[in-house]
Sequence to fold (304 residues):
Amino acid sequence: MPCGGANVVTVSPSQFDGQSNQSPINAANNGISGTSLAANQFAEFGINLTQALGLGGKCFAFPQQVWESRSSGSSFTSDPPDIEIEHHIIQNCGEVKIIKQTDPRGQDQDFSFSSTIPSPGTSNPATPNCTRSHSNPSSFTLNDSGNAGKTLGSTDPADNSAGNTQDCTNVVQGTYTVTEDTEPGAFSFESLACSVTGTGGTTATTSGTTATINLKPGDTVTCPYINALHQGAILITKTGKYKGCEGQPAGLPIMVGGSQIGVCAGTGKQGRSERSCLQDHRLERRRGDRQPGNHRSRRHGLRG
Fold:
């Protein structure tokens, strides 16, 4: 009968696996009692809880479990080491955190991401359970707005916010990828590094803007993406006439105070193609009356 309203699960025999010892066990190999055992006097059994309890694609944890082995019949005598109590959690899920930071911090800009983390569907509890784009974590956006002055590269919650963090709990163990999509025009990708907390054996590798996560139960993977803001500058170029270029070949350096400030265009103008300065000022003798004292000169102004 169920205890305290617990549900009884009838498990198919096919979910169990085990066998008794088919040959004698010598005393040196008997860690329980240190005595020799004849064939069929010791047995081990196991069960696939994921299959037995229908946990495929779902997250469940067992906060404590008790394993107890007892002898029966006249096979051999039970010993205190036969009973073992485990005080740790058995679980099949982990956690993935993606953090977006701008350099400098706090820039108000959306960054889009894509991932292979699946949708939770109607699973209860939600598997996975993501804080951003909850129903479809395969596509989400993050924004570092409001985090100006906070430590760049820090994964501490105090240095981040709900807007710049995708926190997915209840992620079933497996391999997943997360990729930052094309950066906005004013930003460039700066860095990506992932850290692992836990002892389950999770690994995380990065290539460009993609993180590949092999998630194991009980572990947490945190991956901060950092993008640099392009700090622009204005270049002003002045083009004008320079008397020192008159009659000089194109490409001649223009030197002022020992420093080069430009080159001659070969036309009397720096940086523009115009008439030669020598042709800008011409002296013409008027044809017609050539009597002495009746000569006139006409000076033409600059042409541009």
Summary: The first strand starts at residue 16 and ends at 20. The chain is about 5% helix and 35% strand.
